[in-house]
């Protein structure tokens, strides 16, 4: 149809529309001057990071087995030749650098349905696997369902991500193993999971959407698995087994109560009289149950992201953390002269000739964050795995009669908030970045800071002008490398605020 393709407006104006004929129908197209009305482009940071996600997963249904018999002139009753149904598709989580959070995930996901078996002993197609990409550092809690029983063999892992005894099946494809093993395994895994589950409080409602989990909080098994390496995969819901086709069903039932019914079935064709009707119905049910494919397993998982970074930058809002991350790495976080510019952690890579490390810029923390003041301290879990903490303080805060918190008080508040979030969180190698050294009066502040805070190195930096950044990089490398003194950690008792 005309006007179906984008045509520049200036051509459109000179274009004379043909007179409408009764047989013509035109699509209604509205053109607007794009320079006048620009679409609102939301900055990346305005979208809150989706770092918790509830996922309902179900494996695909297995295909049904086929009942068919191949008849020949020599054998008028025929031989069974129905193939088995295919296995349903699995739902798999794959760990990748390509995604940043869980915003691309669908909450309900189902593995592909398998094909049915057909005659000539042809097995049904396997259901399509659904692979969901999750960011590196994804932690899995299970709210409902079995702990998945298999870790894919090709996953390039050093560590078994389920880290639970008895979760690997020797040959999960083996039908003999399947039913027996699953029962035993489910039992042992459940016991192990219960033992290993971390009994921790969910914290404030802001930290966890309690209404979603009401009444089920007790059942959640925490930290059952972690995805920490690129390409690592785990199956969270397995596809159902395919039903047995007539070929396998005949073999399977030999020696069982089905055998009788199979033989009887043959006899039935010859003498169709002396079989009790009720019993026959039962047998038919049994036969159809082995013929139909089973449903896939179901699981309700809570995915939680804990970024993996070597260094965590913690500080009050406006201390200059994002500016510093930009100076240390090629990351381009949003910088603003107002508090809480950073709404989600930003990651940057700091490269050396022979070494590289990841630095996470954590949104600003304020006193009382553990009571949900400011942005709360929910995002602090992103530094739970960092090796080194870099406390960024604003040397100019409170100078020139302006309101503000002194650097030593900032440090004290930060350490306390970390400890409120998780006991011992501040107990790791640390250093202090004394930022905004270019401001008036900052030098004296630095001297006082050095007098008041002991036990850790202090690096004076001007993040905007990238002064002192090279020395800071060396200091961070020393700590991340493990060459730092074990005593280099910031302790409350070493901060004098009076
Ligand atoms: N004078 C001076 N200003 C700086 C320096 N570093 C950062 N700033 C300014 O401080 C303000 C806050 O910087 P950010 O990097 O956004 O601070 P932040 O700690 O990430 O802030 P939040 O996102 O609120 O946590 C900006 O206006 C920066 O330009 C510095 O070394 N000297």
From TrEMBL:
<keyword id="KW-0547">Nucleotide-binding</keyword>
<dbReference type="InterPro" id="IPR027417">
    <property type="entry name" value="P-loop_NTPase"/>
</dbReference>
<keyword id="KW-0342">GTP-binding</keyword>
<dbReference type="Pfam" id="PF01018">
    <property type="entry name" value="GTP1_OBG"/>
</dbReference>
<dbReference type="GO" id="GO:0005525">
    <property type="term" value="F:GTP binding"/>
</dbReference>
<protein>
    <submittedName>
        <fullName>GTP-binding protein OBGM</fullName>
    </submittedName>
</protein>
<dbReference type="InterPro" id="IPR045086">
    <property type="entry name" value="OBG_GTPase"/>
</dbReference>
<feature type="domain" description="Obg">
    <location>
        <begin position="47"/>
        <end position="308"/>
    </location>
</feature>
<dbReference type="InterPro" id="IPR036726">
    <property type="entry name" value="GTP1_OBG_dom_sf"/>
</dbReference>
<dbReference type="GO" id="GO:0042254">
    <property type="term" value="P:ribosome biogenesis"/>
</dbReference>
<feature type="domain" description="OBG-type G">
    <location>
        <begin position="309"/>
        <end position="481"/>
    </location>
</feature>
<dbReference type="InterPro" id="IPR006169">
    <property type="entry name" value="GTP1_OBG_dom"/>
</dbReference>
<dbReference type="InterPro" id="IPR014100">
    <property type="entry name" value="GTP-bd_Obg/CgtA"/>
</dbReference>
<comment type="similarity">
    <text>Belongs to the TRAFAC class OBG-HflX-like GTPase superfamily. OBG GTPase family.</text>
</comment>
<dbReference type="InterPro" id="IPR006073">
    <property type="entry name" value="GTP-bd"/>
</dbReference>
<dbReference type="Pfam" id="PF01926">
    <property type="entry name" value="MMR_HSR1"/>
</dbReference>
<dbReference type="InterPro" id="IPR031167">
    <property type="entry name" value="G_OBG"/>
</dbReference>
<feature type="region of interest" description="Disordered">
    <location>
        <begin position="60"/>
        <end position="87"/>
    </location>
</feature>
